[in-house]
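Anyone able to model this chain together with PRP?
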Amino acid sequence: MENNQATIVHHPVVARDLTILRNKETNTADFRLAMGRIATILAYYALKDLPLKKVEISTPVTAAQGYEINTEIIIVPILRAGLSLVNALLNFIPDARVGHLGMYRDETTHEPVDYYSNIPSGLENAMVLLVDPMLATGGSADDAIAFLKKKGANNIRFICLISAPVGLQRISTKYPDVSVITAAVDEKLNNDAFIVPGLGDAGDRYFGTT
Ligand code: PRP
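re: yes, here you go
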């Protein structure tokens, strides 16, 4: 399903794996495997309209026309949990460069706190794939997008697994040029700004730090 800006990915494997991720009984190994499978499907949708250029090649039989991807791609995970989505994208685009943005959400204020950044040069000429499994208040994604735009990014896609309506609305309103690819729009946030029903803390569950 698509509106102007958000692509909500519906797929039987996504539905099955979201259930595995949401289930609090799921162990770390199964959580990682399910995240990896969903990330592959999200990556497929995020990359489905990549620009191509024609190239001439020779098969063992004859000359032929083929295609190469005609844009540089820079993947930017929001640490930590965003790391869980990087490998799936690298499987499709193995020469993508990867920048890192370290942010955690203050447990009291729910505001993002920046602690690290290492972003490759050339953002202005690249398709930038910002990744984080959770879009809750939208504060982290908002800060990350503002940071990347300030550094010159003008073609940003945000890939997240689960979104809350308020976070999705915040990003759509503030950054109408940023498309969002997500697997689910959940019901709401609770008083601790956790997504409901959600899956808990994605970083803790993926890295086994609970
Ligand atoms: C989580 C999540 C997002 C952010 C979403 O990170 O991975 O980065 O919160 O919340 P927001 O939309 O309200 O900003 P967390 O603070 O748990 O850090 P972690 O990835 O290091 O676990």
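Residues 78-81, 103-105, 110, 112, 132-141, 167, 193, 201-204 surround PRP (CB under 6 Å).
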